[in-house]
Every structure is written in structure tokens, then in C-alpha cells.
Amino acid sequence: MKKLILIFLAVCLMTGCTSTSALVDDALVTDTSLALDEKLTLLGFPEVHISAPQAFFDGKAWMLRLMEILENAEDYVILTSYLASESESNREFYDLLIRRAGEGLKIYLLMDSSSTFDMTRSREYVRPLMKLREHGIHVLEFNPFSINRAITPSRLFLRDHRKVLVADGLYVAVGGMNINHASTLGLSEGSMAQRDSMFLMQSSSLAHLFVSQFIEFWNSYSWESVDESTFAYRAEGAGEAQDIRAFFINQDDPSSGADVKFLGSVLSSAREEILVLPFAPLEDENTFEAMENAVKRGVGIRMLLTNEPREGLRNASYYAATRLLENGVELYYEPDVEERQTLLHEKLMIIDNRWVMVGSFNLNYRSLVLANETILLVDSPEFAAFMKQHFEEVLDGTVYVDEQTAEQWKKLSDDLAYMLKRMMG
């Protein structure tokens, strides 16, 4: 009976999902003769210019910087978070939101309805945020769970996974940190914290691009409409040069296949090396094939598997290890999550010591076809060198995955369980 239920759910989900076939059969996406920037331009992905990104790998440090930006904002702040809820660790932040809204600052918060079903270690600290509306903060809960949505499972599992800050048309941050208990703890505060990243920059072009798309998205899902005049204020640059080129993907409709074409372009354009910190790398056949094609061209791929404390998700991730090794991917894993105390939740790709891909995007099937995601691809050898050093530090102390270990892991989960986890994340 259990297998029949899994089959039914998997079929329902598969029939409502965007195809990932462009990863391997779209002529432009897979053209290996084109440079990555040429290909992205031809595909219509927008180019922006940013200042050197400031990296935050500690939730408390990021929260302090976020509060500083909020305190100094003059006109508006837009925040998006997959999981957002109040706890003792972030109460000061939410109190500041309320105070600044009372002072006239326009604050828009987009959060996914999964926030009230938080299955991370934050679940014991969840306090809903709808009360913020009473204080003049504009809150949109994306795709609330309901019985009628259960009739169409593909719609039920569509989530808004983006984590973005935009303030006054100048400051922009993207990354993987939510505004919940686990993400806002400092790394020194014990096993509840997560190792994650956020990247802050100044970019008038990126802010304008995101705001334009945000307006259309907000008006599609909220009774409360906004327009360009709502976010017309543009702060003066604070002196940081916005001269680093980047490409930005703000997938707010997975049926567009934007993330699929973007990822396919990156994998097919790599020449030498791809370094990956993927959270829950639950891939489909097209993604496996695209990575294998890169390896066959001589591209070395190194990837770290996170020791996820949730057994089902960890086993599903480990189940893919044999296939990744067959593809030629060099795999590592963290041997003991209790020893490290914290979950690695980062999303990072470094390509050819030049390109750095950050944002909310997990390298898995669900992010490609069932989630709204952001990707920032930064063209900077200097930033790539900095992030590669970080990657090596994260990799320090991990263990190489050999074929024997991978075969043992595969017994932890069966095909159908892997398929379902691939959908649900």
C-alpha cells in the first residue's frame, strides 16, 4: 500500500511539472562552442552591474547587518523569505520592522506558507507573522495550503523559495538564509544554527530589475496592488563602484523553464572545473546527463553531500551518490553532523575560477521545476578566488565517497522514496 501511495503521488506531481529536457536537448543551451556570457545574452537573461559582494556566513552577523540597513532605509524595504517566523533569536529584528513601519517606512514581506509548517530545527520556535499586518507592514503569504489545492498536487507543492532584500533601490542581498530561528542564530550558538550564506551588494540595475518583477508578482497574488510609484525612490550610491558584471535570474514562474535553461547553459559552457555546495542534490535523469556530459568534456566536478539530520532527506540525497560517481563527479560527505553541530545549507557553484553562482537555488529537480528561485551569476575572478577558498575550508575534514560507500548508502532508500523526496525537497 505504501508503494502504491508513493506511485500515485509521484505520477500526480510528474504530470504537473515543467520538463527539464532543455538541459540536454536545447540546441542553444547545450552549444559548447559559445562562451557562457554569449549564451546567456542570446537566451535573453538580463545583465546587471554590482559592487563587490560582501559575504556573510554567520546568521547572527547577517541579521545585525540587515537590521542596520533597515534602520537606515529612507523609503522602502522589500524582503522575501521561504521560511519566516519570529523567535527569541530574531525578535529584535521583527520589533524593528514594526517600529520602522510606524515611522513611515514602506515594508513589503513575501513569505512562503511553508513558514507555519517549518520542518527544520526551527519548528519548536515558530510564531506566525500575520500580526505584522496590524502594524502597517505589507505581508503576502504565497500559496497557502488548502484542501482544494490538494486536488492538484503539482500546485500544492509549488513554493516560493527566494531569499532577497532590496532597500531604497540601491542595496540588494541574495542567498540562502531564511528569517527564522535556525537561519538567524550565530554559528557559535549551538546545533540549532545553520551554515549558510547571504551576499550584500550595491546595484541600482539589479534593484530596479527585481523591483519591476516584484510589482507584477505581488499584484498577481495580493488584493493590495502596487505600482512603480510605490518603489520610485532611488538612493544615491554610497561610493562603491558598481562595475562587476553579473547575470540575474528571478524565476517567479517555474513553468517558464528559466532555471532549467540557465543551469544547462552553465553546465554546458564550463571548460575546466565546477565546485558545488548543493543542498539536497536530488536530481532527475536530464540533470545527471548534463553533468556527465560536462565530465566527458574534461570538466572536473567536485561536490559535497550535506549530512542532513532529517533521516529521510539525508538518505534520499545519499541514494543519488552511485549515479553521481558513475557520471564522474568527485563526491565528499560530512562524516558526523553532531560533531560539526550545524547543518550546511549553502548553495554555491564556482565555474572555471571565474563565475560564481549564488542565491536561493538548490542544485536539484525541485528547484528547477517546483519553486520560485533567484540566481545571481557573478563574473569576477577575484570573487571566485575568495569563494573557492571558502569552498576548500568547508571541504576540510570531509570524507571522499568511494563506490563501496555509495552502494551501501543506496540501500537506505528505494527508487520511489527518492522520487518523492525529489519532488517535495
Primary descriptors:
425 residues, alpha/beta, Endonuclease, Chain A, 2 domains, seven-stranded mixed beta sheet, 19 strands, globular
Task: Give structural notes.
This protein is α/β, with parallel strands linked by helices. 38% of the residues lie in helices and 21% in strands. Strands 1, 6, 11, 12, 13, 14, 16, 17, 18 and 19 form a 10-stranded mixed beta sheet that branches. Helix 1 crosses helix 18, helix 4 runs parallel beside helix 5 and helix 10 packs parallel to helix 11. The N terminus is likely disordered.
Helix content: 25-40%
The domain count comes to 2
CATH topology type of the largest domain: Endonuclease, Chain A
* pLDDT < 50 runs, ≥5 residues: 1-16
Strand-helix topology:
Blueprint: H1 2-15, H2 22-25, H3 36-42, E1 47-50, E2 54-56, H4 59-72, E3 76-81, H5 91-102, E4 106-112, E5 138-142, H6 147-150, H7 153-156, E6 159-160, E7 164-167, E8 171-175, H8 181-184, E9 194-195, E10 198-202, H9 204-221, E11 244-251, H10 258-269, E12 273-277, H11 285-296, E13 300-305, H12 311-319, H13 321-326, E14 330-333, H14 337-340, E15 343-344, E16 348-351, E17 355-359, H15 365-369, E18 371-379, H16 381-395, E19 399-400, H17 403-410, H18 415-424
Parallel strand pairs: 3-4, 4-5, 6-18, 9-15, 12-13, 13-14
Antiparallel strand pairs: 1-11, 2-10, 3-7, 7-8, 8-10, 11-18, 12-16, 14-19, 16-17, 17-18
Helix pairs in contact: 1-18, 4-5, 10-11, 12-17, 12-18
